C-alpha cells in the first residue's frame, strides 16, 4: 500500500496532490452533463441528479485566483465539515463532506466559474455532482479497523468491483465492446483526463483514499478506515449539470416559462453507442408514458 502524505491536507503553504490512477472507474457522459449544467454562468442553481447529490461552494474575494486554487478551497471547506462531529456518522451540517466521501459513489463531475462582482470584487462558484447519495439513516461508509480495500469487500457493494492495492480504493470495470457483444474489462480509464476540471477529480479521489487508508486527520487522531471506498471517475453529464449550476453566478430556473424540458438519463452504455440510438431510446421512453393512463388520457408530460 502506498503512503499518502499528510501534506495533502495542509493548505495553502504545503500542498501535494496524490495522483490516483483510475484503474477501475468509467467516465459517464450523463453525469458530466449534469455537472456542467450545475456550474454554468455561476448561477449556483442546485440541480441534483436523480439518485445523486450536489455540492455547491460560493464566495466573494477581492482578488483573481486560478481555478485550481478555488477548487482546492472549496474541497477543503467541504472536507472540514467532518470536524463538526468526528467520525463517520451523518449530520445535516456535514452533508457536503458526506457527499464527497460516500463510499458507493463511483462517478463525479465538477465545474468552476468566476464572475466580476464590481468594485474590484470577484464572485466564485464551484459545484460537484455525484452519482450516488446517502440514504436517510445511512452512513457515509462502513468504518473498519482494517484500512484499504479488498476485492471480496468491494464485490459486496458491486459484484463487478475490483481493488487497487496502490490506492486502497475499490473500482468498477470500464465497459468496452467487441465484434460480438459488449463486455466489461478492468482497465485504466483514459476518459479521466478529458474532464475539464480533472484536477478536482484528483483531489476528491485523494481525500477518499486518505479516508479509506485511515490517514484522514481529525482532532485527536484519524477517521476510521474503510475497505469498501470506491474511486470516482469523470462523468460528462454530471460536469454539465455542475456548469449550469454556477452559470452567471446567479441562481436561476433553467426551464423557461411555457417551454417544457424533457430529460433522459441513462448510464453504462458502450462508449461507441451511436447518438441516434440513444436519441431513439429517449424518444421511445417519453412516448411510452402514454401507456400509463391509456390512449384516452388527456394529460401527458411534454
Automatic annotation (TrEMBL):
InterPro entries hit by this protein: CAP_dom, CAP_sf
UniProt xrefs under Pfam families: CAP (PF00188)
SUPFAM superfamilies linked: PR-1-like
Highest taxon of the lineage: Eukaryota
Domain SCP, first and last residues per copy: 28-124
Protein name: SCP domain-containing protein
Species whose genome carries this gene: Trichostrongylus colubriformis
Amino acid at each position: 500500500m502506498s503512503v499518502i502524505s499528510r501534506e495533502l491536507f495542509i493548505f495553502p503553504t504545503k500542498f501535494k496532490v496524490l495522483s490516483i490512477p483510475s484503474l477501475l472507474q468509467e467516465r459517464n457522459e450523463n453525469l458530466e452533463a449534469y455537472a456542467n449544467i450545475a456550474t454554468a454562468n455561476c448561477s449556483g442553481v442546485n440541480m441534483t441528479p436523480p439518485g445523486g447529490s450536489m455540492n455547491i461552494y460560493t464566495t466573494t474575494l477581492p482578488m483573481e485566483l486560478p481555478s485550481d486554487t478555488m477548487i482546492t478551497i472549496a474541497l477543503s471547506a467541504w472536507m472540514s465539515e467532518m470536524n463538526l462531529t468526528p467520525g463517520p456518522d451523518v449530520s445535516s451540517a456535514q452533508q457536503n463532506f458526506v457527499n464527497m466521501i460516500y463510499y458507493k459513489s463511483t462517478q463525479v463531475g465538477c465545474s468552476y466559474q468566476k464572475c466580476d462582482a464590481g468594485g474590484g470584487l470577484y464572485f466564485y462558484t464551484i459545484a460537484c455532482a455525484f452519482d450516488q447519495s446517502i440514504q436517510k439513516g445511512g452512513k457515509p461508509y462502513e468504518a473498519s479497523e482494517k484500512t484499504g480495500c479488498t476485492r471480496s469487500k468491494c464485490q459486496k457493494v458491486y459484484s463487478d468491483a475490483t481493488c487497487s492495492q496502490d490506492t486502497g480504493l475499490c473500482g468498477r470495470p470500464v465497459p468496452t465492446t467487441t465484434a460480438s457483444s459488449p463486455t466489461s474489462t478492468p482497465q485504466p480509464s483514459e476518459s479521466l483526463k478529458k474532464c475539464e476540471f480533472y484536477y478536482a477529480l484528483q483531489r476528491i479521489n485523494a481525500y477518499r483514499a486518505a479516508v479509506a487508508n485511515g490517514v484522514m486527520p481529525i482532532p485527536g487522531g484519524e477517521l476510521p478506515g474503510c475497505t469498501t471506498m470506491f474511486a470516482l471517475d469523470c462523468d460528462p453529464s454530471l460536469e454539465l449539470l455542475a456548469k449550469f449550476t454556477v452559470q452567471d453566478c446567479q441562481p436561476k430556473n433553467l426551464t423557461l416559462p411555457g417551454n417544457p424540458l424533457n430529460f433522459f438519463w441513462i448510464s453504462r452504455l458502450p462508449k461507441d453507442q451511436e447518438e441516434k440510438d440513444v436519441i431513439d431510446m429517449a424518444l421511445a421512453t417519453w412516448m411510452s408514458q402514454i401507456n400509463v393512463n391509456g390512449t384516452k388520457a388527456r394529460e401527458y408530460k411534454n
